[in-house]
Amino acid sequence: METHFITLQHRAEYRMAYHQWGDINNPRVLVCVHGLARNGRDFDFLAEQLSCEYRVICPDVVGRGKSDWLPESLAYDMPLYLADMQELFQRLQLDKVDWLGTSMGGIIGMLLASLPNSPIENLILNDIGSRVPGQALQRIATYVGDYEFTSLQEVEAYMRKTYRAFHDLDDRCWRHLAEYGHRTDEAGGLYLHYDPRIAEGLRATQHEDIDLMAVWSQVNCPQLLIWGEDSDLLKAETVRIMQQQNPQLDVLKVRNTGHAPALMMPAQIQPVYEWLLNR
User: Fold this and answer.
1) Contact by Cβ (8 Å): 88, 18
2) pLDDT digits over 55-88, tens only?
3) Which among 133, 100, 114 has a CA at the least distance from the CA of 279?
4) pLDDT (tens digit, 9 = 90+) per residue, 159-187?
5) Which of 13, 32, 249, 271 is deepest in the core (most CB within 10 A)?
6) Contact present, 102 and 42 (Cβ < 8 Å)
7) Per-residue pLDDT, 205
8) For the chain, what is the mean pLDDT?
9) What distance lies between CA 43 and its chain's CA centroid?
């Protein structure tokens, strides 16, 4: 795995990091994009397994991980994320890619896949669908903050308490999430590895649902929907409507799991691996 940076100039100048696995000359490319308060290293275990078949690219969306934060005068929003990903494709000369997006990363992928002449050939949505409940977004916004910790063990304890959908992870995965999910300031304080401002847009939605049906109806490539059975972000009714509209939609239900399946353990990675190899 190697980490690289590109400099972008959308509204301001900033660097975006991406983590790359596999042969850079492999024409089969999988782009994996994380959720609101996560980063590209969430996909390390999946990327390691798939790197024998794919060149796997896992960006840190601006404001997260090793990517720069935006100036305080600028907002984090979908148009910016879309522009960043489109430029990443151009810089890396990616004409065709498969896309795996968790939560926010799934919305970005859905929007990109709905565009004319989209480079996305196969789309995997991890626990995100054509309607996103506003109350669930508000719940997520409540745990995004400028927390300070005194040790890596405290970071891990916070994550174990906050990310309850990851209950099936082993200790190695939790250590990984804590290690790559924190940053250290000059004084030695430990903080979560994102700009606390990333949730400002969610807090302003006032529990309004997001209707993406018009967008999703424009997505024509093969799609796999990963559904955490107990998710509050992807409801059973939304899954049913999506299946009615697209009978070819493949659904992978992850039982006893909320938002969102971590895709770090073999039982969750293997079905994704097999679905992609059968495309």
Assistant:
1) yes
2) 999 999 999 999 999 999 899 999 999 999 999 9
3) 100
4) 999 998 998 999 999 999 999 999 999 88
5) 32
6) yes
7) 66
8) 95
9) 9
- Over residues 188-232, the pLDDT tens digits come to 899 999 999 998 877 776 678 999 999 999 999 999 999 999 999
Report helix angle 104-113 to 78-91, nearest 10. 70
Cα-Cα-Cα-Cα torsion 139, 215, 42, 53, nearest 10 degrees, comes to 160
Compute the distance between CA of residue 53 and CA of residue 30 in angstroms, rounded to an integer.
Answer: 10
Distance CA 207, CA 258 (A): 19
Query: Strand runs (DSSP E) across the chain, as ranges?
Result: 2-8, 14-21, 29-33, 55-59, 97-102, 120-126, 131-132, 148-149, 182-184, 190-192, 210-211, 223-228, 250-254
Contact 64, 34 (CB under 8 A): yes
As a whole number, mean pLDDT of residues 130-158 equals 93
Q: Are 196 and 223 in contact (CB under 8 A)?
A: no
Q: CB of 173 within 8 A of CB of 48?
A: no
What is the maximum alpha-carbon separation in the chain?
A: 55
Structure tokens at 169: 């992870």
Q: What are phi and psi of 229, to 5 degrees?
A: -55, -30
How far, in Å, CA of 53 to CA of 33, rounded?
Answer: 18
